[in-house]
Amino acid sequence: MTSSSPQSSPQSSPSPRPSPSSSLSRIRIGSAPDSWGVWFPDDRRQVPWQRFLDEVSASGYEWIELGPYGYLPTDPAVLKEETARRGLTVSAGTVFTGLHRGPAVWESTWAHVSDIAALTQAMGAEHLVVIPAFWRDDKTGEVLEDSTLTPTQWRNLTAQTERLAHEVRERYGLRVVVHPHADTHIDSEENVTRFLDATDSSLVSLCLDTGHYAYCGGDSVKLIETYGERIGYLHLKQVDPLILAEVRAGEVPFGPAVARGVMCEPPSGVPALEPVLAAAQQLGVDLFAIVEQDMYPCPPDKPLPIAQRTRAFLRSCGA
Residue ranges of the Xylose isomerase-like TIM barrel domain (predicted)? Predict the structure, then answer.
């Protein structure tokens, strides 16, 4: 997808459910290290990167994300060789930022972002997925800061995100897509729409993660139909509604919630992915839709059969 692709107007009517024979011709399906239980550059509970590449290719995917920087080789020549011989192409890189903390964190943020953006560009990708800082630790659940931003922090978040998007575009030719995420300050419908309304649409787009948005109470189809011109990228994910209810009732942090299985294998959870994909197709632009099933930590033999079944399910949807 190119950043200059025209967007159609958001649809006001409900999106039709695609038949198995329909073709979601504008949707490019891929997967990511996340679906293999990979959250960190180096962790003994994660599968080796070679196994991830072997298995994601064997599952029938052609597109992948870089995942946490340093998990896959950071030498572009090495990574190009390893992905090419498996028939894989990189769709995006991912960065974590704390831009609500203001200009004081710009230099450290840019040092982190520039390395990842350079590798993303070298791999021929056009998107950089930006995930806001967690207000509580994703591994331990420790509360790190207030879950609600002050007005000043909101201004910092929007202004610094626009700055980042401008610099990434000018220096690396990449499009920033901001990822609403559980246990961050861009999570619920209220906070997502507030963020979108306060940022420049020519600079900042959204990576809509269907699982995280449902986790935080949002409706992905409604968001696509209302803010279609801002949807620049998709992550396909589902949540188990019963586990989610327990997580919400117990105020369980995101990391432990994942360990409980709150993110589940499609099509057993919510939201239904068929109407999400249909709504995205109706935008009339090319979109990546990258499967992410948070499973950290998980047994090493668990991801492959899930990935194969998920790819088959998405094919049955026309993708």
Answer: 53-316
Residue 174 falls within a domain, yes or no? yes
Decide: 250 and 280 in contact? Cβ < 8 Å: no
Which candidate, 227, 99, 213, places its Cα nearest to that of 160?
99
What pLDDT is attached to residue 16? 44
List beta partners, residue 222: none
**CATH assignment of the domain containing 243:** 3.20.20.150
- Residue 191 has φ and ψ, to the nearest 5°, of -75, -35
Tell whether 19 is covered by a domain. Answer: no
The model's confidence at residue 202, banded by pLDDT at 50, 70 and 90, is: very high
Model confidence at 22, pLDDT cuts 50, 70, 90, reads low
What percentage of the chain reaches a pLDDT higher than 70? 93
Domain span holding position 79: 27-316
Domain assignment present for residue 161? The answer is: yes
Residue range 259-315, pLDDT digits in tens? 999 999 999 999 999 999 999 999 999 999 999 999 999 999 999 999 999 999 999
| Domain-located, residue 16 | no
Query: How many domains does the chain contain in total?
Result: 1
**Residue whose C-alpha is closest to residue 120's, from 176, 54, 56:** 176
Q: Which of 318, 300, 305, 314 is nearest to 59 (CA)?
A: 305
